[in-house]
Design goal:
Blueprint (H helix, E strand, L loop, with lengths): L2 H30 L8 E5 L5 H9 L4 E4 L2 H10 L8 E4 L8 H4 L4 E6 L2 H14 L3 E6 L16 H9 L4 E7 L11 H19 L3 E3 L6 H6 L4 E4 L1 H4 L18
Parallel strand pairs: 1-2, 1-8, 2-3, 3-4, 4-5, 5-6, 6-7
The protein binds pyridoxal-5'-phosphate.
Amino acid sequence: MSRLVEDVEERVAGIATGVRHVRARVADAARAAGRDPAEVTLVAVGKTHAPALLGAALDAGVTDLGENRVEELVAKRHALADHPGPVRWHMVGRLRTRAANQALDRDVLVHSLDRRRLVDRFERLGAEHDVVQPVLVQVNVGDDPAKGGCGLHEVDELVAYAREQPHLTVEGLMTVPPMPPDGTAAGAAARPHFARLRELRDRLGLEQLSMGMSADLEAAVAEGATLVRVGTAVFGARGDAPWEPVAGGPHAL
Ligand SMILES: *Cc1c(COP(=O)(O)O)cnc(C)c1O
């Protein structure tokens, strides 16, 4: 067997184990918080990983896949189109206004709606193509210049504006907390930000809360996350040779 095939087989087995581990972490955190684990959907974030590895996550029972670049989402969705069973896709990264057309789809939940211009673009595209686009409004709860999302003072207005549009449906809120300060556990640092997002969600009468990643998903589940976005703990570390959406490229599997 070639080295590459062995590597891939090893990675596929690792992904099945990763999915099991993450599900167990989610379930433990949910029970500890008196929640039903079924209230939390695992979104496996496959950025930089080849479509075959995302397919392995689906084989291991994952139903929801996330990407942070829309070009990658489109290419992988195409590559996995024949995979049996329904897949819900999640666009979790910053979206350029001009690239909104690539995300437009009622089967893609856009987590990163962060400005009126993007609302306007989705409304126009949705009207044109008869699509009601499901979205989450991303909030920069930690006011971190390195993170995307609208400011806390802008949320009410942006949510209200998006809700006025017939071709958008606002399902909830999403956040990425700031990097924890050195020596601080990720979960402990993130938890107040997650609590903040939940308060906002409740006040706005929304349903979904997209928060929690590999390092801090327990804190997110404890604070009410309904969608956790997990990359590393499912797929392993992102290598220095990312998969690129180029037909027949060196990393195409
Ligand atoms: C990459 C990414 C994740 C997953 O991060 P991990 O730490 O690898 O679990 C979650 N959300 C967003 C927006 C991401 O870009």
